Amino acid sequence: MLDVRRLKVLRAVVTSGSVTAAAANLGYTPSAISQQVAALEKQAGVALLERVGRGVRPTAAGQLLTEHAAVIGRQVAAAETALADLREGRTGRLAIRYFTTVGSSVVAPALARLREEFPGVRIDLRMTDPDDPLPEVTQGHADLAIVVRPHGRMHDGLHLVHLLDDAYRVVLPKRHRFESKRVIDLGDLADESWVGSELPGTCLDTVLDACAAAGFSPDFAVESGDYATAQGFVAAGLGVSLVPDMGLVSRHPGVVVRKVRNPEPVRAIHAAVRETSLGQPALQGLLRALKAAAAH
Asked: What pTM was estimated for this model as a whole?
């Protein structure tokens, strides 16, 4: 295999016309240049230079390698420029995973801000369940995922950045006996029929843990993994439900929403990234943008 550094030396000799001139241009001694050319000729198995007066000129093989050395030099320079652009966040790609309720209120404004700061970075944005995307991040298929995870829970190789706490509200049918209350104790709902609003996973665990802390296990008459559908079932009088605040952007006209306490269920929303990726400027910019959007 030909040595790229020796090809660079050969090109310097050919373009400058002599070993002495090439040595002066490269900051080497003439003997060091001659040794590099001799080593390259040994690798090539053919003479690369021939003497002409006080200078040298390339043989056919030497001219061929000199032309290739010029191409290699341009490619190396282009690679160094591309690497610098990637390192500084001027180019690249970010794969992001998110779930429905953070899309319009958090992810969308964050990406708008990111595009202003890093216009050359391409975005691969896909929606997923809040419990699913961690393996994609750990395996390198995604750079960042918005997830629901309890405060303080650690994951090997991952860094969790807290974005916001999303409190659950109780959704009641209109003319419910608790409609006049502004805040409802969770335990007062123990005897109600329930409409499930969450699929199995961390979000449902948040609801079940809060009910357990209030001393009961909810009796689910209807199960639904969709907040809008759950509100429809509540409006039809099939039960009450707990829905996170961010899931109540569009409210069904047949329900009332009230705060709940003792305890108030809260799902903690985080951005998950690999610890080894934290130094990427574009990823840092995205985290800043997500935190700013979550704060509003």
From this structure: 0.71
